[in-house]
Amino acid sequence: MTAPEAAAAGHVDAVPGFPGGTAVSHLRVYDWPTPDGLAGGSPHLHTASTEGYVVVRGEGALETLSSAGYTRTALEPGTLLWFTPGTVHRLVNVSGDLELLVVMQNAGLPEAGDAVLTYPPDVLGDAAAYARATAIPAWTEFPDAESAYAAMAAAARQRRDLAVEGYLRLRDRVRREGPGALDDLYEAAVGLVRDKAAGWHHHWERGPHRQAEATRGHIADLAEGEGAHLHESAVYTADHPPGPARRNGMCGMLQVWDLDGARPVG
Asked: What backbone phi and psi angles, to 5 degrees, belong to 154?
């Protein structure tokens, strides 16, 4: 059985995955005003994954705290940028219609917990308090779409505002003290993800590692004049998961694709 045949038969591991073991989503950045008067998303960082943006509509800015200190980068259609683990990032929606394509390294890791919001220290230092502040109610908890959307939006806005509160204090410290002011946040972030991280290996193994190993094999075969893998060429597609068309993410309303449910075309 070829890889495309196995994928068509429902063998998830036979699907080659999105290029590079990444995930892609479409993001409409929140236009809700924040405590400092700006509209935008929830400041946060990733502990193991690099994230990239391609701006497709609107104007805005990306505020970051990293080893370079505080920076603010203007966003407009066509802007491409990416940032590595540990970079605190905050999207600001200046025009009110900022939309991005988001490419996330290590598909599945952010959903498995590789994201830490910049809450005030008392919340970051208490795993139970952090979980309560971060939770968004499930779509299925409500009798109708209207009440579900309202409750989910309220929870997303509340956690966004709490993350902005902590971020503004942290940004002031970074401006005064330099990147060393991030040390406490990094320590708290590691503490929050430590127990989850042991379960992240399978995402890496199924995604970027498997694809890198496949490429290694293809290059070695081609160098020997072999090209058997070319006979397994195929086109794949993926649908949106069940439920609402867009979901409340950390930075805005997300449209995602179910890459685990990918299937060959034709």
From this structure: -65, -40
Q: How buried is 145 (Cβ within 10 angstroms: 0-12 exposed, 13-18 middle, 19+ buried)?
A: exposed
Distance between CA atoms of residues 56 and 61, nearest Å: 13
The token pair that represents 58 in the structure block: 């609107």
Q: What is the pLDDT along the chain (266 residues), one digit of tens a residue?
A: 445 444 444 444 668 889 999 999 999 999 999 989 999 999 999 999 999 999 999 999 999 999 999 999 999 999 999 999 999 999 999 999 999 999 999 999 998 999 999 999 999 999 999 999 999 998 888 888 889 889 999 999 999 999 999 999 999 999 999 999 999 999 999 999 999 999 999 899 999 999 999 999 999 999 999 999 999 999 999 999 987 788 999 999 999 999 988 999 98
If you search the block for the tokens 């068309």, which residue do you land on? Answer: 245
Where does 16-264 sit in CATH, by number? 2.60.120.10
Q: Distance (Å, rounded) from C-alpha 266 to C-alpha 256? A: 23
Which contacts of 204-209 are long-range, i.e. CB under 8 A and separated by 24 or more positions? 204/21, 204/106, 204/109, 206/13, 206/17, 206/21, 206/108, 207/17, 207/21, 207/22, 207/106, 207/107, 207/108, 208/20, 208/21, 208/22, 208/105, 208/106, 209/21
Domain parsing of the chain, residue ranges: 16-264
What is the value of pTM for the model shown? 0.91
Amino acid 58 reads: G
